Amino acid sequence: MIPGRMVKGMGGAMDLVHGDKRVIVLMEHVVRDGTYKIVDDCSLPLTGRGVVERIITDLAVIDVTRDGLELVELAPGVTLEEVRAKTGPDFGVRPQAVRHSDVVAVRPHGGCHE
Question: Which 3-state string (H, E, C) describes the chain?
């Protein structure tokens, strides 16, 4: 594979999305030049239609719902305005959406006793 060049033919992603119950996409939020990666309409051939449930990027966690995209969580230091500016389609914000820094580490069960 050569960076910046299109690869012809079907890849392994087709096998991954066929018949799976949950598909989560991990990716950078934008292309190096700032172009949206999360778009309304895909300009490339689709690997699977309607199979992605969640998108996790370097900026946010976004769920794909029947009603559209829904922000679940922001990465540390990232604002809602930044995610909106770097996302093609409009999206809702889950009422209980959190910033990553708001998440408290939980001690695993069976850990230290006080």
Answer: CCCCCCCCCCCCHHHHHCCCCCEEEECCCECCCCCECCCCCCCCCCCCCCCEEEEECCCEEEEEECCEEEEEEECCCCCHHHHHHCCCCCEEEEEEEEEHHHCCCCCCCCCCCC
At residue 73, φ and ψ (nearest 5 deg) are -155, 145
| φ and ψ at residue 29, rounded to 5 degrees | -70, -35
CA angle 69, 57, 12 (to 5 degrees): 95
Which tokens sit at 106? 């939980």
Q: What pTM did the predictor assign? A: 0.73
44 vs 59, residue with greater confidence: 59
Q: What is the pLDDT of residues 5-50, one digit of tens each?
A: 666 655 566 666 666 678 888 999 999 999 999 999 888 777 778 8
